[in-house]
TrEMBL record:
This is peptidylprolyl isomerase. Its EC number is 5.2.1.8. Keywords: Isomerase, Rotamase. Residues 74-164, 189-280 form the PPIase FKBP-type domain. It is an enzyme of class 5 (isomerase). Pfam families: FKBP_C. One of its GO terms (molecular function) is peptidyl-prolyl cis-trans isomerase activity. The keyword Transport does not apply. It catalyses: [protein]-peptidylproline (omega=180) = [protein]-peptidylproline (omega=0).
Length: 280
């Protein structure tokens, strides 16, 4: 994942939620004002990262230090929150109230909330409360949302009331050719360039594609097949694929990352990959 691609290998209570999970990085409203799924960089971006829109920076203030479990990327969080428009003349910069909700549930780091929230809650503990001042490019950007005008900073006070470990569905190892390529065949020892995207396996989603956790960089991902440079499910699942083909891999944890936790990938996770072979 990241620059490493699907690399080396580095309770379970099945989790269900009625939250609509975004499988893209486009903006899509999920719950109220807070849960606007955005690109990781926000709905808009500043031309100068040292001078955000409106001159407002991301600022975090701990109001209550929690004593419960530590919050990490990939946790299923339940929070209570109140939001305001930023007002430099108001106490704590809390201007017009725009939202208040209890019991909001989402996966931290999965772009199910505005970027300023995703970036600000890591390191909290359950029972903690934090005030977060968020610039527009990490909030609702140039389009705004509901009571939030375009290019407007916001302030949220967020209490973490619970966290659970994300759990995927389970399925056996499977290989499905979506498109059979017409070029050279991938063999052990071949140098491959591929485009790919990876999702957590979810029984309830189309094609079992749950939360998207990774995708190939621009220009594709390069590795040598069968050398342990990638997870075993890839080393086994891409043999025999032909250039220009597309293949779907369902990979159980024993052929992926096992009991290890890796960012959005929880322990003992089953994964779904769609892989296009660009070049052998």
């Amino acid at each position: 994942m990241g620059t490493d691609g699907p690399g080396r290998r580095h309770k379970r209570t099945r989790w269900r939620s009625n939250v609509v999970f975004s499988q893209t990085r486009r903006c899509a409203q999920v719950i109220g004002v807070l849960t606007l799924a955005t690109c990781l960089a926000g709905c808009g971006s500043s031309s100068n990262p040292l001078a955000p829109v409106g001159g407002i920076y991301l600022r975090v203030t701990d109001l209550i230090t929690g004593t419960g479990p530590l919050v990490e990327i990939g946790d299923v969080l339940t929070i209570n929150q109140v939001g305001w428009l930023y007002d430099s003349s108001a106490p704590d910069n809390k201007g017009q109230q725009i939202d208040a909700a209890n019991g909001i549930t989402f996966v931290l780091g999965a772009s199910q909330v505005i970027s300023g929230i995703d970036q600000s809650l890591t390191g909290m503990r359950v029972g903690g409360k934090r005030r977060v001042q968020i610039p527009p490019d990490l909030a609702f950007g140039p389009t705004g949302s509901g009571a939030v005008p375009p290019d407007t900073p916001v302030v949220f006070e967020i209490e973490v009331v619970d966290k659970q470990q994300l759990v995927t569905g389970s399925a056996p190892f499977s290989i499905t050719d979506i498109t059979v390529g017409t070029g050279p065949e991938a063999r052990v020892g071949s140098r491959l360039i591929v485009d790919y995207a990876g999702w957590l396996y979810n029984d309830d989603q189309p094609d079992n594609r749950g939360i998207r956790f990774d995708e190939s960089p621009a220009g594709g991902f390069t590795f040598i097949l069968g050398t342990g440079a990638v997870i075993p499910g890839w080393d086994q699942g891409l043999v025999g694929m032909r250039e220009s083909g597309e293949r779907r891999l369902v990979i159980p944890p024993e052929l992926a990352y096992g009991a290890a936790r890796r960012g959005l990938i929880p322990p003992n996770a089953t994964l779904v990959f769609y892989v296009t072979l660009i070049r052998v």
